[in-house]
Specification:
Length: 244
């Protein structure tokens, strides 16, 4: 069963054999959107930004996300930071991967070993598709979205891409917020966990040309970066993920 819905401002697709698991996963994404959207005045994030909730009174999910965001900020030397230059909090850069991971775990807990959860181009897959073949994930050409530059066969893993070619310049370097990130146009990260792939892809993109080196040096991650000239650089173990 494959179904797509528009939630959190993006298409979310769930591919799993159990309709109840699919429905539960979509219900989870709706809950995440209601709690974490910085664009909804009634969300918990908006209430925090208005100082209407004390930090110690946040929900368990919010506390988990904030702790993960802080751990990521430290691990990336501040290149990942959910605090915007205007002083407001925007956890969008970590919530998507975290929500996908939770949805995948929810599906697995219902007894499924074959599924794929995709939100806004980021994917967590496990097992095989309905044809019995391993899942395949494409990396789009940042200069022509109708073309695929690489097809991966990641196994039970997460794949996340950060870039400026779909949503524009929405990622910035927290150390120099006003400086344009123009050297790298797309950076894909593969990790066993989509949450790790997503958060570290965002941080590495903010690092510019140094980002792929950060991915290379971080255990459990592989990456593929494309610069503004169309030149690709990949980590040492990336080729083993390419579909044959």
């Amino acid at each position: 069963m494959r179904e797509t819905r528009l939630i959190m401002g993006m298409p979310i697709t769930i591919d799993a054999a159990n309709p109840d698991a699919v429905a539960a996963a979509f219900a989870w994404f709706e809950e995440v959107d209601a709690r974490f959207s910085p664009f909804k005045p009634e969300s918990e994030v908006s209430a925090l930004n208005r100082c209407e909730i004390a930090p110690e009174a946040v929900s368990a999910d919010m506390r988990e996300v904030l702790e993960l965001a802080e751990a990521t900020r430290i691990a990336t030397d501040g290149y990942f930071d959910i605090m915007r230059p205007d002083g407001r909090m925007d956890p969008s850069g970590i919530v998507k991967g975290w929500a996908i991971r939770k949805a995948a775990r929810l599906i697995a807990a219902m007894g499924l070993s074959d599924y794929c959860v995709e939100a806004g181009g980021d994917v967590q897959c496990a097992g095989h598709n309905d044809l019995g073949a391993p899942w395949r994930v494409g990396i789009r050409n940042p200069f022509d979205e109708t073309r695929i530059v690489k097809v991966l066969q990641p196994g039970n893993a997460g794949v996340a891409t950060s870039g400026s070619y779909v949503r524009g310049a929405h990622i910035y370097d927290p150390h120099a917020p006003s400086a344009a990130l123009s050297e790298i146009v797309g950076l894909t990260v593969v990790a066993g966990d989509i949450c790790d792939a997503d958060r570290f892809a965002t941080a590495a993109f903010a690092m510019g040309r140094d980002g792929i080196g950060f991915i290379e040096a971080t255990p459990g991650l592989e990456g593929y970066a494309i610069d503004r000239h169309g030149t690709a650089t990949m980590t040492s173990g990336f080729r083993r993920l390419e579909a044959r």
